[in-house]
């Protein structure tokens, strides 16, 4: 104990003692004191130079006039200035022209990733592959309900889409439903028999899915002749679709399959152009534009590239 002196300077204590530990009156080291005062000085200088004291609606500005929001805005302006030449050309050119221009194409695809992530990935999944069973179409294949040309995709995005397959629960007997499930499965493998085709035609399926059962793009009716499923190739799921349809307001068990509209103004214009009419006459003034035309063009190009470009 004796040679383990905890108080070599014989410094007086403060009179405080806990469990044999005495509090001494040693001053803190000089470097420490200097650092303490310097840091106090720093705070003071910072207070004068930068925005600091909170007021009711605002704060003091500081001598430098710097602010975080200004710095952000400057950075943003710099990025926008770099992007402007590309954005302007994309706005002026048609989507088909952009597909032919390697540089613009790369820019459009690159700058759409965030747009896609913010607006589309929640339903269609990262990279156009939705989680299995989520009920959203895969965008990363070359199988399209409404058409895979870049202009058809623009139309899909602008207008939104809503498939209409009515519920058949009240229209078919159990045997007929069994027969049609059998047809859909056999036909997906190219093995449907004449009797199965007859049932398909008799029950009115051909009216929407086409005489060849390959689907009709104007209606968005699924292709029943391949093994790419809009919903599922499981017999029970096929049965569910036939019995309850999609988006059928009269059937509570119907599948909900609605693609939201992103730019109604553009949708009106596409429609008017198709009929050679003046879109101005069709605008009602309350068209919702959740994405700009340029954003839609870029996204359509991105989706088109995902699908391998049909
Ligand atoms: C709320 C969910 C939802 C969101 C968000 C959504 N979609 Fe869709 N989308 C759907 C559904 C459902 C369909 C299928 C509609 C149908 O079955 O008739 C669809 C269909 C499509 C189609 C047509 C596919 C085909 O085979 O023809 C494209 C292209 C598409 N979406 C792209 C997008 C893009 C790009 C975005 C982002 C701007 C987006 N979607 C946002 C639900 C969504
Ligand atoms: C009024 C038009 C219409 C009629 C009639 C119709 N369908 Fe459909 N069907 C559709 C549409 C549209 C879709 C795609 C729905 C979607 O993607 O939102 C569809 C989807 C399907 C699917 C899902 C395919 C997949 O890939 O998951 C099956 C199966 C199907 N129909 C079978 C039938 C059968 C069998 C009949 C005859 C009893 C029939 N449909 C009658 C319009 C119709």
UniProtKB/TrEMBL annotation:
Q: Does the keyword Heme apply?
A: yes
Q: Where along this sequence does the record place binding of heme c 1? A: 120, 123-124, 259
GO (cellular component) term, any one: plasma membrane
Give the UniProt subcellular location, in the record's own words: Cell inner membrane
* UniProt KW keywords: Cell inner membrane, Cell membrane, Electron transport, Heme, Hydrogen ion transport, Ion transport, Iron, Membrane, Metal-binding, Oxidoreductase, Repeat, Respiratory chain, Transmembrane, Transmembrane helix, Transport
Please list the GO terms describing molecular function: electron transfer activity; heme binding; metal ion binding; oxidoreductase activity
Its annotated pathway reads: Energy metabolism; oxidative phosphorylation
The UniProt entry's GO biological process terms, in alphabetical order, are: oxidative phosphorylation; proton transmembrane transport
Matching SUPFAM superfamilies, A to Z?
Cytochrome c
The principal localisation class reads membrane
What the record notes about the co-factor is: Binds 2 heme C groups per subunit.
| Cofactor (UniProt) | heme c
Q: Which residues bind heme c 2?
A: 165, 205, 208-209
How does this chain assemble?
Component of the cbb3-type cytochrome c oxidase.
- What is the purpose of this protein? C-type cytochrome. Part of the cbb3-type cytochrome c oxidase complex.
Q: Which family does the similarity line name?
A: Belongs to the CcoP / FixP family.
Protein name (record): Cbb3-type cytochrome c oxidase subunit
The species this protein was found in: Methylophaga nitratireducenticrescens
